[in-house]
Amino acid sequence: MRVDLFDFDLPPERIALRPASPRDSARMLVVRPEGFEDRGVADLPAMLRAGDMLVFNDTRVIPAQLEGTRGEARIGATLHKREGPRDWRAFVRNAKRVRAGDRIDFGAGVTALAGDKGEDGSILLRFEGDEPVELLLERAGRMPLPPYIAGKREADARDAIDYQTMFAREKGAVAAPTAALHFTPVLMNALEAAGIGHATLTLHVGAGTFLPVKAEDTDAHRMHSEWGRIDAATADRLNAVRAEGGRVIAVGTTALRLLESAAGEDGLIRPFEGDTAIFITPGYRFRAIDGLVTNFHLPRSTLFMLVGALMGRETMQAAYAHAIAEGYRFYSYGDASLLLPER
């Protein structure tokens, strides 16, 4: 499909630079085939049914933004995807000043050797020393805010808390699964009281999630890959929910992408561990999920294509136009939407 079919105009003031406080006070646009409904995240228990299951991504964001030097050149690096115990792919600012074998000094005693360049423009970084890379990043790194926020303000101490979900446990993401940022213990208790369960899986979100689609047609776009895992017990629970008439509602596009990667043509979710580069566009037949909680996404992005595949492109264009007109806040720290397709 033509990528320009997924374009829309977003006023810059609609981009949220801080999350709602408390988190579950954010607004929520409910989108069904028959129309839209303006609600709040706190209304979610009333919008779902007893027996439904929410699925969260329990990945934890690491301090993946680094600033360093190679000689006199200033180098910025955003880690993208782990490739070994000490090896990370990174998108590098001022990459033309970096060659294979160069040592980059990130300060605080943290150095890395540059390796080969990937097809996506990333550079392989091998961190030196014996300390676990996680400890090195805690010393030298900072929270990797999305470019549409980082371009307007610096990351600060608040972001170390604001940019982690309450489910964050498995270290490895360089971007948050932001739909889950809206959830609080109070909201989870209300969902449980309404008979709505929850499960977790792990998908380490990469910086590739923010890469623009440069191709003119979706067939020419190469999707980034990310590592994820669903264990057998979780797969069995989700299959049982659907067998008993409940719905599996993914919280975030990352959870959705992993669930769909783990599902067979028969709709059954199976244990999964490895990379996925699934690219969902209109015409895709969803197998594993019955709904989605997600934030509002960038124009011409793979994520806007995904929600267009779930609800219909014209429906989502209309929903986003409604959200813009009604003052909803967009992107990572913005408001939420609940997408319930007809099943």
Give the topology, please.
Elements: E1 27-32, E2 35-40, H1 44-47, E3 53-57, E4 59-61, E5 65-70, E6 73-82, E7 87-93, E8 103-105, E9 111-117, E10 123-127, H2 133-140, H3 147-150, H4 157-162, E11 170-173, H5 185-193, E12 197-203, E13 226-230, H6 232-243, E14 248-251, H7 253-262, E15 272-276, E16 291-295, H8 302-311, H9 313-325, E17 336-339
Overview of this structure, please?
With 343 residues, the chain is α/β, with parallel strands linked by helices. It folds into 2 domains: 3-61 and 161-339, QueA-like (3-Layer(aba) Sandwich), CATH 3.40.1780.10; 65-141, QueA-like (Thrombin, subunit H). The chain has 9 helices and 17 strands. The strands form 3 sheets. It has a 9-stranded mixed sheet with strand order 2-1-17-16-14-3-12-13-15, with helices on one face. Strands 5-6-7-10-9-8 form a 6-stranded antiparallel sheet, covered by helices on one side. Strands 4-11 form a two-stranded parallel ribbon. Strand 9 and strand 10 (123-127) form a beta hairpin. The longest helix is centred in the last third of the chain and has 13 residues, at 313-325. It is globular and about 60 Å long. The model has no long low-confidence stretch (mean pLDDT 95).
Short description:
By secondary structure, the protein is of the alpha/beta class. The chain contains 9 helices and 17 strands.
